[in-house]
Each structure stands twice: as structure tokens, then as C-alpha cells.
Amino acid sequence: MKAGEKYGRLTAIKETRKNHNYLAYWLFKCDCGNEKELRANSVKAGEIKSCGCLQKEVSKKNLTTHGGSYTNTYKTWQKMRARCLNKNDKHYYNYGGRGITICERWNDFANFLEDMGERKEGMSLDRIDSEKGYCKENCRWATKIEQQNNRRDCHYVEINGVKKTLTEWSRIYNIKVATINYRIRNGMTDVEAITTPKRINQFK
After folding, report:
1. Within 13 A of 67's CA, how many CA atoms are on the CB side?
2. How far apart are CA 175 and CA 166, in angstroms?
3. Strand pairing partners for 26?
4. Model pLDDT for residues 151-191, shown as the tens digit of each residue
5. Are 39 and 16 contacting, i.e. CB atoms less than 8 angstroms apart?
6. Rounded to whole angstroms, how far apart are CA atoms 28 and 12?
7. HEC sequence for 12-24
8. Mapped to the 3 state alphabet, what secondary structure does the chain carry?
9. How far is 171 from 40, CA to CA, in rounded Å?
10. What is the pLDDT of residues 35-69, one digit of tens each?
11. For 24-35, b where at least 16 C-beta lie within 10 A, e where not — what string?
């Protein structure tokens, strides 16, 4: 990335810092006039296209042009976007905060509705592969039981050629699943999060 390059509505100004994983953050100027520090690889990959003004415009457009603004399907779409895009959302750390994205097509609620159909009673939006983002190919309407069976701690991790779920590994290494997920959110790989010995007074 170089100063002056443009990505969506954002123009790169200068690199500001690197985080503990050596991921670069840059200062960008948006077409609306706002300046914002953003993770460079997210901007370059097209995951972030503005300072946030684009999302507000899309949301406003959908609220004023689509008759489904107050349906359960629309509320589900709003919540999906909040946990992936809004850092103030209480669920953001486990979605947008760990790299879960939403495909560009689903910036428009009409496209989301076309791909998924209306949400049926007792169903909720579920990602088939919980390590991948929200898109038509990776999403379904699922029951609560189906979602529980698809939680991150039900996913398999391979260590020394052996595959087990996070829950199973947590019992073997005597480390709580909450601790493993905490470590992953803070930059460890799945294997490191499971196999790194606990420290005294460590989180959970």
C-alpha cells in the first residue's frame, strides 16, 4: 500500500502503527471528508470501503425503500451487520473482531432477502463454517439445536495428526474453552491456544 492509493471511498494517507501481530494500520481520508485509522489489509481486500458513511447510506436507503424494514428477517440482517461492523456491539469481539466479514452483495437487504428468503419461526441465521463470513454459500436458516451443534467449540482442530473438537482438547489439556477462545481472539492460532500451558492467575 502506498500513500495516495484509493480503495472504494478511502484514500491512503500514511501508515500509523502496527499491532502485536504486525498488521499495519493506516490513516485514510474518506470521500465524505472524514479521516480514520483502519487496518490496511481489510481496506485493501475490500472489506472496508468507507469511514462508515457508506454503511449509513445503505441502511437509510433500505429503511426508506424496502417494505420489510420491520420484519424478523430485516432485524436478523441488521443484527448480522452490527456484530460484524459495529465495534460498540457487545458481540463484535467474536465476529468482526476476529475477522468475520459480510459479502458485498449483502450490503443491500433486498439481496439478502433474495438469497435467503424470509426467516421462518424458530429459525435463526447460521454460518455453515463458523470460521468463514456471511454469504449465500455459507449461510442457512437453522434451528437452535442445529446452531448449537455448529458452535466454534464443536469444530475440529488437528494436533500431531489427531483431530478433536475444541471441547475435547480443552479437557485433555485442562484448559477451559473460554480461555482457548480468548487466546484465539488475541492472536494465537488454534493449536497454540490449546497447547500453551496455563499461567498462574491466567484469565479463566
Report:
1. 1
2. 10
3. 15, 38
4. 655 567 889 988 887 878 888 999 888 888 888 888 889 89
5. no
6. 5
7. EEEEEEECCCCCE
8. CCCCCEECCEEEEEEEEECCCCCEEEEEEECCCCEEEEEHHHHHCCCCCCCCHHHHHHHHHHHHHCCCCCCHHHHHHHHHHHHHHCCCCCCHHHCHHHCCCECHHHHCHHHHHHHHCCCCCCCEEEECCCCCCECHHHEEEECHHHHHCCCHHHCEEEECCEEEEHHHHHHHCCCCHHHHHHHHHCCCCHHHHHHCCCCCCCCC
9. 38
10. 999 999 999 888 888 888 876 666 555 555 555 55
11. ebbbbbbeeeee
Cβ contact 11:29 at 8 Å: yes
Q: Which residues of 52-72 are buried (b: 16+ CB within 10 A; e: fewer)?
A: eebbeeeeeebeeeeebeeee
The backbone torsions φ and ψ at residue 118, rounded to the nearest 5 degrees and listed phi first, read -70, 145
Residue 87 is placed in which grid cell? 465495534
Task: Please answer whether residues 61 and 73 qualify as being in contact, where contact means their C-beta atoms are separated by less than 8 angstroms.
Answer: no
**Residue 117 carries which side chain, given as an amino acid letter?**
G
Which residue type occupies 6?
K
Cell (9 digits) for 109: 437487504
